[in-house]
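The instructor's notes for this session suggest beginning with a concrete chain rather than abstract definitions. Hand out the sequence below and ask the class to guess, before any prediction is shown, which regions might be ordered.
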Amino acid sequence: MPKTNQKVSPERNRPTPHSHRRASPVQQRSEATVERILRASMELLHSQGIEGFTTNAVAHHAEVNVGTLYHYFSDKNSLLTELFIRFETERVDYLRNRLAHFDETTDLREWVHETLKSLLDLRITTLGGTVLRNAVRAIPSLYDLGTEQDEKSVADLSSALRTRYPNVPSKRTDAIARTIIDAGVASLDRVGVGLGQPKSVLHELTEMIVAYLQTLEK
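After discussion, reveal the predicted structure:
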């Protein structure tokens, strides 16, 4: 199969979670306090959902004064933004790293299935991860961030498709990448919140994507 030297850069368009803080800690003890606040936030999301997520509840759970929390985060949306960017960065980086070797894989079905399974596991095993993904539909600022992250995945996938299938026009790889990312994100989000059987959805989503990609090999 013809190949080019084009690879996906792992550092491209990396988001910066700290840009949403009111202040950044300058001492190790202060950084530990911020991490405790963020860890408590994820634990609270996991146990109480978005409805029970308030700055007072987070401060209480983190065992810090609410004034300390407000020193770093202006409100609960600022907290949610940093948590969401951290979660999405891990998701986007994982897919980017997988795509860096997409043109080398010989078992397309296994590659697609393992990639989807890992992305689903990330939603399920990350404490509060499914709540964060579900919150995208209810909080406009998170929806916009989610869209930005999905656009990066679309660009990464389209680039990887062009590397594996250099004879396919870029407009088509762009369209295919967007269709796959949109379908994948929506399907995995539904399974993450219990709306679907994981094995069944993973199988059908894998078969759909593989069938789609195989049309590029003809």
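Then share the key points. The chain has a mean pLDDT of 87. The longest helix spans residues 140-164.
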